[in-house]
Amino acid sequence: PLPFRHKTMQLLFPEEDVNQYINDPPKESGENTVVNGGGLVECTESSTENPGETGKVNHAQETHYNDEEDNELRQVTPLFSLIPRCFRFDNAPSEATGISIDYYARGHVVMSSLFLGPALLDLAREAAELNCTEDEEHGLRNCKIHGFLPSSLLSNIAILSGILGALSMPIVGAVVDHTDKRLEVAAVSAIYLAIVKGLEVLVGQNTWFMIAVFQVISSILYNTHATATYAYTSELTNDPNQQSSFNAHYNVVLYISMLVFLILVLGLAWFFQTDDLETARISQALTFAVSLGCFSIAWRFFFNPRPKLSQLQPGANLWTVGFSKTFSTFQRIAKHYRALSWAIGSMMFAEAAMAALSSIAVTYMKEVLDMGGNDVGMIFLIVLCMGIPGSYLGSFLSIQLGDPVRSALVCDVGFIATTTAASFFLTGPQNRDMAFIFAALWGLFLGWLPPVDTTLFMNLMPSDSRAELMGIMMFATAIFTWLPPLVFSILNESGVNMAWGLASLNLYFIVAMLCLLQIGNYTSARSEASNVTYRQVNEDGHVQGGTAETSSIPATAAKNIRAHLPVWGNQTLKDSNANIHTLGDHELI
Fold first, then answer.
1. The pTM is what?
2. Any idea what DSSP says for residue 140?
């Protein structure tokens, strides 16, 4: 995922609005207004011990806020003051700082495959040339390894990663929701992910296929870790404005991490004059060191256990309940929120094409343009840098055109035009300089579309179930990531010119446009989400044939956790999320 998805949401919800509530919280008669350190404002009705004694507050139900006490609760680790300011949240749960550190590690993990890919293609080609067979009838040489062309290696990795990643997300989500093992799942997957990256340093002529398998394993571990971590992210606050600020900050950290990684690897490769294989080893060694350090610090010191969010009903199991809940949620969205369902359909196909662009582009640049790993790194450095103006351009056009639907349509058209032109003009090594121009255009659109899609999704969904529906959005963006690489591999194995494989990405943007056109009037689509709350839809689903595999879920995960917290004991509660812990009989919101 690119780091610009939530930039538009940050613009829609200015930080000044939150600060205004903090500095001058609204007060109404008969209510106590409480402001937490993250900017969330919540009012609770005061109750009296005796109806006849007005003004006497029942302290068992009174909500308190104390700066000194709250800071002590948040800074539960001795390392807190040592964390760089760009990662640290002084007035937020400790998990907020931990997620920042986690995102920095993930940025290195995401970018490491860019340098490993060209090296794997070279090694696979060398291995295939040792197993070539002659087709005397047609005068052709058939050079395959393990039954496929070496140029299909990266797309085949993407196919397996996409399928297994999509299948693992509901299972991991079920473990997070229905057990108390969330912390263990997130921490263990993070450490194993770092270890796998360390093993990838061994890439060579005799180990390239094993490293290719490790690429699939690391993708599954990454999806597992991201799914478990998202459960913590969604509980940082109940305020959508503040949640948007958290997400924007994390995506900036992710962007900085990827940018630093590219600059460091390219600088080291230039200094030592390395080839593609040596550059790949440098990138994996750097990823291992940074990810292991950041993951260890974050998950050892900044995260706390969570109770299970809901109970499994008799007969249900963790292997299937996630799939049944996801299917049921999609059914309810399609039935009650037509516009939202079309927005999800658009995201499914557009995000699949954007995710496949990296693996297909690396293969195309290596096989057709004969570009090395360092050149590929420079291409993606341009892509990252152009994502920043792309994010602002998407926000600007959403305002100028009146709604994000039109902005997304314009971006899809831009993707189609750019990809078509690239497949037409980038025909050989003599055109490699033009690749940098197309990289700038792709970067512009990659920075543009994700935040616009997210803005559209959040504006069309009911506001009373953001955590659950944002999880659905994550699954929707991953469910078809295997399809574009599959089409590319089929065309490549059939001997079709690779330019057609690159141009095949246009099909998914065309489908995304058709889905967007079905949304219709944007104002009417937004009002659709306010007509029926998701809680009502959920209750209706349980009554009229909805899933019965889990117990009823509160409106938000945070509220559900609050219901379980009293059984933990005071010491654990003290180290817990500052937005949801309980102190004795007094709840601190």
1. 0.78
2. E
